[in-house]
Structure formats: C-alpha cells, structure tokens
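Give me the fold.
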Amino acid sequence: MIGNIYAIAAVAIIGGGLFGFDISSMSAIISIPQYKCYFQSGPIPDDPSECTGPSADVQGGITAAMPGGSWLGALCSGYISDLFGRKKAIMIGAVICLTIRRWIGSTIICAAQNVPMLVVGRIINGFCVGICSAQVPVYISELAPPSKRGRLVGAQQWAITWGIMIMF
C-alpha cells in the first residue's frame, strides 16, 4: 500500500493531464476535412476542401457536451461520496470510466452517424470523468498535511491546464 502523499498525488496529476486532453479533444478534430464533410450542416460539396462542417451553434453543442456531462457527473459524485466515502467513490468512478465510458460512450462516438449520437457519446464520457474530477482534489486535500495541501491540489489543476494546452 502506498502511503506517500507525493505518490498518491502523482497519480492524480497524471489523471488531471488526461482529463485536460479529454476536455479539449475536439480542438484536434474540428479542422480536418473528414470531420467537416461527415457532419456538414448543408449539402455536401463535390470538393472535400469546400466542406464547412457543422454550423457554429451545432459545433458549440458538440464541444460543450463533454463538459456538460462532466458537470452532471460532478453533481452526482457528492451523493456517491456521501454513500460510500471519497476513496470508494473514486474507485467507483474509475470502474465506471473503465466500463461505461470505454465500452458505451466511446463506442457511440466512434460509431456516430449523426450529431445527436456524437453529443450523447460525449455526454456519457463527460459524466464518467466528472465523477472523479470532483472527488480527487478533495481526497488529496484530506490526505495531505496542511503545509503541502495547496501545492498538491494546485499541481493537479496545473496538470489539467497543461493537458488542455497540449491538446489544443
């Protein structure tokens, strides 16, 4: 069993970086011609370079679906934490991420035939991430001594920001 707070925080920091990648994952996709033509709002032109993709409001909805699901997951995580405790809530969130997110949410996104399928898949993925993203900083702050608390929780948030920046 690992009792070193820095080792525990390192796992959370790596997870924070991955969460940052998830948040900004659409930024890597929205400019490629295949995405623009597949989710084209109007008629598909003969030349793929002329595809404009979804309209701005539809693209905003697609992009916001992931953080919206995270918000919903964060709301539910408090209830889960009250029932089982923070450590078990994080474990439940990890199991949900490995099962529901991986097998259902990601499959729906990969098989998306239209915008609603893409949005539903992103909401499911966001929900799973939201459960853990709300509990991990609180758990780290409970474990850390007061002299290291802000540094470790701040490092986790810093990793989320770096993940967003790297993927963007």
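The chain has a mean pLDDT of 87.
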